[in-house]
Amino acid sequence: MKNILQLVWLVPVLPLIGFLINGLFRKQLSKSLVSLVGCGTVLASFVISILIFIDVKNGHTGVINYFDFIRVGDFSIPFAFQADQLSALFLLIITGVGFLIHLYSTAYMHEEESHHYARYFAYLNLFVFSMLLLILGANFVIMFIGWEGVGLCSYLLIGYWFKNMEYGNAAKKAFIMNRIGDLGFLLAIFWLIAKLGTVTYTTPDHKGVFDLLTNISAIKGFTAFDITGITLLLFVGATGKSAQIPLYTWLPDAMAGPTPVSALIHAATMVTAGIYMIARSNIMFTQAPTTQTVIAVIGLATALLAASIALKQNDIKKVLAYSTVSQLGYMFLALGVGAYTGAVFHVMTHAFFKALLFLGAGSVIHAMHHEQDIRNMGGLKKKLPITHLTFLIGCIAIAGIPPFAGFFSKDEILAAAYNSNKIYWVLGFICAGMTAFYMFRLYATTFLGNFRGTEEQKHHLHESPLSMTLPLIVLAVLSVIGGWIGIPEVLMANAHSLEHYLSPIFADGAKLAHNAHHMDHQTEYILMGASVLLALVMIIYALRRFSKKPDLAEPSGFGKVLADKWYVDEAYNGIIVRPIFWLGKFLNKWVEKGVIDALVNGVGRSVQYVSRQVRLVQSGQVGSYVLLMVLSILVFFVIQFFLKK
After folding, report:
1. What is the pLDDT, as a whole number, of residue 645?
2. CB within 10 Å: which end of the chain, N or C, has fewer?
3. Nearest alpha-carbon partner for 471 in 386, 407, 367
4. How far apart are CA 260 and CA 263, in angstroms?
């Protein structure tokens, strides 16, 4: 079975090959060939990922070194992949959900011209390759290469319709805000190199980062300040990729890209990168309590802020976008209280139901001829039966109703929050109620009541083709049963198979944790029942409130504040963007043009003037040449005998 792990390099390489074929030959390939290459390479990666997952589950893990990526004296950074429980699980999520999104895209993007269709699939394949590289990297540098790769691909895909200026601005916003976070990640890598002399996770001689950090006191010159500083900088990187306060505003704007891209960014790839990085580095974060508190507080604040904004959004994709930001906040809350398994569990279940919801939204938009305002929808239940049923399943799952997937992962996070800090639990509980409310407001306004669109839209309403509905059905099934691998101990003994599976990854961190304790069964039943009851109340209220009389008027009062996203974008524009533009214009006018250009142009003009005057010497008169020669001799004579010391 060892040979299976040797195939791990194929998992990222196959999508890379798909990118090269579709990218280089985009004008020669037909749409069917582009679809075959784009989908086939990711499907092949998924099949290999299943084999690797089975092999890892049977106890075969390891680091596969390919070559020295960087070597300077005794310092080296190998190009190596790490196949273990965490990476194998993420491989399944990325390639599995990624393949369904690729398949869905074949129908959703079919109206595009052939070469743009190929360009789209090339970008999609490159996105999957970059994320797989991030996951498989056996050190922080290889992870960072994949990290930068997904940032580039997000720019390319968000701005896919590049002729639209607004979409281009959204792409640039995502790229720049990610670069801000990436600087923190890069500084953390340099800090690790300076203090530990390595960026490799683990090594056979136990000199890797995580090996050394199991006993910080034994590392000469390494202090609590170092571990806090490094982990805070890593978290800055995570706030960029995983859209946390203050770097979250790019993610809702990422809706400018095609809907399958939104599903890929929000569900299976990019935004989970920060969660993966912190979960992978759990032994570092467990020993930095200050950082963990910061993570928990910012995660909870992000969850509440985004959930409040989602309450008043009318764009079907914007509601889901802010929902993603809110759910990511939940995951960071879990990381902050040390519930690493719970965070990874929610990453998995969220991938299922959020991909389902985005693709379901895409099916609605496809049927409504690119209409995204839910106030112009309604009554789609009969016309889009498969989309309706699968979207409803996604809404139930994210609301946390048992036995759907979201219930188990969200309950685990809330239980961990309760154990850590009761205030965390209260705020997380409120956020859960808001989630159930805004999701069923979205569902009721879109699918129930009377149709509010145009007659032309009503005439063309139809269910999406099989290549779009099949991924919806698969994801709906996963949204129902996906949580059953993490049934809590209070409901069934030894049924949390995910916790057992991931225990080798989090074992060392768990030994160093100071707050690991379990609540009694009665308390857990009460908390579980309270969250389910709140979700049901919010669902019933939203259905009764919006199914027959949806909110069609423009929001006013505090509702307008929520609809305008707490004016955070306006504040950023006023405090950061406009002053930078003003500074740029000032420097351009007075420094670049007034000083630098004046200096450079002045030198040029001086040379030209001197040249024009000197050329007059070339008169052709011998007498003038003799006079100049005599004068030159006199000058040399004076220098030689009177001025030279």
Report:
1. 54
2. C
3. 386
4. 5
